[in-house]
Design brief:
With 572 residues, the protein is α/β, with parallel strands linked by helices. It has two domains: 58-302 and 419-492, TIM Barrel; 305-414, no CATH class. α1 (68-71) links the parallel β6 (58-60) and β7 (83-87). It is globular, with a radius of gyration of 23 Å. The chain starts with 5 loop residues before the first strand and ends with a strand.
Length: 572
């Protein structure tokens, strides 16, 4: 055994295989795990893990750090929550390929789809690329606190090839399809692990224009899929409304069959069709029986909108009297909102748009987030239920709750995965053998969603704290967010605590592990704001054999690199 640069001694190893935890030392040298066992020789550095868990670093397969990775070396909130590998380029949106003439269009799209403000992107993006391979080269030149893996994104590809016809949602010609297929394959050969697209109606610019990929014909997806499959893609990633679930799934299955490549899609329980997730899993099982790998991608908690006066959304954001003070600096805004007269005017105004009212003013689906945050709240604790017991107006109670903590209190609106008022549907999705755990969306929706902590939530809620239903075994939960995700995207060198594997590790004080309350930070380019959520209990996070976080504080080490095509090609 090589002399160890680091030994993590005496911890309970949850190795990512799903097997029973065991006591062992873990020795690291040259960025790799070189031994796992009892009484290993001393290392140059040691971490005493007595009473602590030792797990692989977490692999997050659904993030949107495409922009953040071009200006920042820290990929938080994910890296504050034990994540050591992130996959960007999801939902068909990204920034390459892109000529200067199309930059504004991609910025407008990312602003609308992923809530990244235009001024932030305009100031922050260096645009030192045009082709997808040159985008990868730009990422490869940077150092990070985690590894980054990429996908070719359909919207940027379609806009690059079709120009304004893509914005107008024109059908692609045979020549268009051939060129998109060529460029997509070029991207995979340069190092992307796959291809992503969106067929979702809600993905649109702030002006209401649907993403260029909305309604793209099957022939286009099939041609691109075949090209990236032949080039070695690990998967195709799709988000779809599944308005006609049978025909849409059948179409996607034909695309995956043609591509000879697995396909993953977002699997969620929607309030409007709370039964649909079960039907989709039936389709997944049928496809598996026919030899086609289709994987639902799920999240272990509700997709929750964070509401507050400092945030981008809240129950009164669309009301005229609030709009009059919305542009004030936050301290002045809170002072104005304390005025009883303004409060009365805001509460007297309805939210006119019915769809917006269902999203913002469904009082029976609106809860205090709490500290530590609670993501499976009892329906009896909702604004509506508490207001009814108190005999007060629900809107007024929501207003007053947001005024707590000097006007910075956060309310949680579980929008998806909470149609039943609990997480039993989510548990069934998590336990299904043809699902993956993802959808945290780190780097996106920065003003009103903060779900990158969903990896920590998998351990805290599902294996330790859940009180409203069965828990999950720790070994199962760790496997789901490490080895399963790594294998799905072709990264066979990580996600397992075993000799020869990449030394990406977490040392966790399981008893103390907890999510922080999200906080608003103003550290984006142009002073843009974003919600950041850290955690307590990560004693150390190790990446490529180097400690990058100790007790939630960055050490300054940046051994993370771009990973190309499932193989590390980091320049040393």
């Amino acid at each position: 055994m090589a002399a160890a640069s680091l030994v993590i001694r005496g911890g309970t190893v949850v190795d990512g295989s799903g097997g029973a935890p065991f006591l062992a030392d873990v020795a690291v040298a040259g960025g790799r795990i070189v031994a796992v066992g009892p009484n290993l020789p001393p290392g140059a550095e040691e971490i005493d893990a007595t009473g602590l868990l030792v797990t692989p670093g977490f692999v997050d397969v659904h993030t949107h750090y495409d922009a953040q990775a071009t200006w920042s070396s820290r990929i938080d909130s994910s890296t504050l929550n034990g994540v050591t590998t992130v996959l960007v380029g999801n939902c068909g949106v990204g920034f390459a390929p892109c000529t200067p003439a199309n930059r504004d269009k991609l910025v407008e799209l990312m602003e609308g789809v992923e809530d990244l403000p235009e001024v932030v992107l305009t100031e922050g993006l260096p645009w030192n690329w045009e082709s997808f391979p040159s985008y990868l080269d730009a990422l490869a030149a940077r150092h990070y606190d985690c590894d980054i893996v990429t996908q070719v994104t359909h919207a940027s590809l379609r806009l690059h090839v079709m120009g304004d016809r893509a914005v107008a949602h024109a059908d692609s010609t045979a020549e268009d399809r051939a060129e998109m297929a060529r460029l997509a394959a070029e991207g995979v050969r340069a190092g992307a692990i796959g291809f992503s697209t969106s067929r979702a109606m809600f993905h649109r610019t702030l002006a209401g224009v649907h993403t260029p990929t909305y309604g793209a014909p099957e022939a286009e997806l099939a041609d691109i899929g075949a090209a990236v499959g032949a080039a070695g893609a690990a998967w195709l990633q799709v988000i779809s409304d599944f308005d006609d679930p049978d025909s849409e799934f059948a179409m996607l299955q034909r695309v995956a069959t043609h591509a000879k490549t697995p396909l993953t899609f977002s699997l969620l329980q929607r309030e409007s069709r709370p039964w649909l997730w079960k039907a989709m899993l039936d389709h997944v099982e049928k496809a598996r029986g026919e030899g086609v790998t289709m994987m639902g991608q799920v999240m272990g908690r509700p997709v929750g909108l964070m509401f507050g006066w400092e945030l981008s959304q809240h129950p009164f954001v669309a009301r005229p009297s609030y709009a009059a003070v919305a542009g004030l600096p936050i301290a002045e805004r809170i002072a104005a909102l304390r005025d009883p007269g303004l409060r009365a005017r805001i509460l007297a105004e309805p939210t006119v748009d019915p769809a917006l009212a269902a999203r913002l003013n469904n009082w029976d689906r609106l809860f205090k987030l709490g500290s530590p945050p609670e993501y499976e709240p009892d329906p009896s604790t909702s604004v509506g239920a508490v207001a009814a017991r108190m005999g007060v107006d629900s809107a007024g109670l929501a207003y007053d709750w947001m005024m707590e903590q000097d006007g910075r209190a956060i309310l949680n609106r579980p929008l998806i995965n909470y149609a039943d008022g609990d997480l039993e549907a989510v548990r069934a999705m998590l336990e299904h053998p043809m699902t993956l755990v993802g959808l945290g969306d780190g780097g996106a929706h920065v003003g009103y969603i903060c779900d990158a902590s969903c990896m920590t939530h998998m351990l805290v809620h599902w294996t330790r704290d859940r009180s409203r239903g069965p828990k999950l075994p720790v070994a199962f939960a760790v496997k789901r967010i490490t080895r399963d995700n790594a294998k799905a995207i072709g990264l066979t060198d990580r996600g397992l605590v075993a000799p020869g594997m990449k030394a990406d590790l977490n040392v966790i004080d399981y008893a103390r592990l907890a999510m922080d309350v999200p906080s608003m930070q103003y550290d984006l380019p142009a002073g843009g704001k974003r919600l950041v959520q850290g955690a307590r209990g990560y004693v150390a996070t190790v990446l490529n054999g180097e400690v990058v976080y100790r007790d939630g504080v960055a050490t300054g080490a940046l051994p993370g690199r771009l990973v190309r095509g499932g193989r590390e090609q980091a320049a040393r």
